[in-house]
Amino acid sequence: MNTANGTNSANSVNALWHNHAHMPTMPGREHRIVRGAGAYVYDDAGRELLDVPAGLWFANVGHGRAEIADAVHRQLSELATYPVFGDFCNPRAEELADRIAGLVPVEDAKVFFTSGGSEALEAAVKLVRRYWQLTGEPARQTVITREGGYHGLHGFGTSIVGVPAFREGFGALLPGALTVPAMDLAALEAAILAHGPDRIAAFLCEPVIAGGAGVVPPADGYLTGAQELCREHGIVFMLDEVVTGFGRAGSMFAAERYGLRPDIMLLAKGLTSGYLPLGAAVAGGRVAEAFWAPGSPHVFQHGLTYSGHASACAAALANLDILEREDLVGRVRSREGRLLEALLPLREHPLVADVRGGTGLMAAVALRGHDVAEEVAHAVVNEGMLMRVTGGDALQISPPFVIGDEDIDRIPVAISAALSRVS
Ligand code: PLP
């Protein structure tokens, strides 16, 4: 019904469509977060909650950083943004691209900005397919990914996601996806040989599988072995560091920790610590050269209105300043053992199936089934913590890097208390 001021009152209530949520049963279940400070958030009931998942793996430098807000305010007041499109660009995007290129273990890196991780994946897959077209191997179109892998849910992301439930029910998906078991090098090699290396464009993986399978660190030697197989067969090696990039895995990039030099790297989340949406596909010289070499006639025909959004780039630059000045990556590395040791005793509980972690501030407490996990995540709010379920049945433990030691120690205590409420 239209009211006098032109709004449609019938549509103005409960119109917010939650991602991955059952909407008919949503009214009354909404958990509204209204404020954040450091490692804590506050809900609309006034409760202070330790932000154990750091939102969706992003609040790395912690909430409420005035320095980032000020940098964004300055940029918004000067110029909200100007597109990085055709000849146009803006200085914040140039500055941030150079800063990223100087940080990543990617040779001669070129940075294509997006609005988030899913878009970074789409850009990277188009880029790599175009690269093969231009270099005379157009049959190379397949992208190999891993079971449990997650790289966003846009068109190609949905086609390749290693979680079947996210792929089903959408009709025909984009061709060119091949999924292999997550930690099995022999299976990867067999898939490459069976499919034909000359039909494979890229291998894509997360160094530590995050949300799709609920934090699975790599088996010893798996990632370097996969990288070698890629080199051997000319396959582009794409590393998704959307979660692990900028310190989460205990080094600036997980690639450094595991001795990897990817041809393409995907970034988002920790790039701005979530202060504004921003992602990037970073291409090394091998791929970028087709478009950047002097005399190349080729244009990468891909574009986004908000690529290199100046205010988001300003947030990222201020975020990186904080990360470096406070040595937050060192802090993550020095706390990873403490976090895992604190969580391991939970394995004794009959409702706990597994505790995984040990790679930076990334861990998971897998419970015996999805329903138990949801119940515990719900109950733990009474212990002053916010948690979420990841990988179907696991509690995601990925706190902001600024978490205090006593708060690390409180996490298993809160989970134990919540477990005794549900068991
Ligand atoms: N890649 C990984 C490893 C992710 O965990 C995610 C999101 O959780 C994405 C890509 C997609 O990023 P976004 O949600 O910003 O589109």
TrEMBL record:
Family to which this protein belongs: Belongs to the class-III pyridoxal-phosphate-dependent aminotransferase family.
Keyword tags: Aminotransferase, Pyridoxal phosphate, Transferase
Taxonomy, superkingdom: Bacteria
Cofactor section: pyridoxal 5'-phosphate
CDD domains, per database record: OAT_like
Database matches in Gene3D superfamilies: Aspartate Aminotransferase, domain 1, Type I PLP-dependent aspartate aminotransferase-like (Major domain)
Cited Pfam families: Aminotran_3
Transmembrane region(s): none
Record keyword Transit peptide present: no
PROSITE patterns membership: AA_TRANSFER_CLASS_3 (PS00600)
A GO MF label: pyridoxal phosphate binding
Protein name in the entry: Aspartate aminotransferase family protein
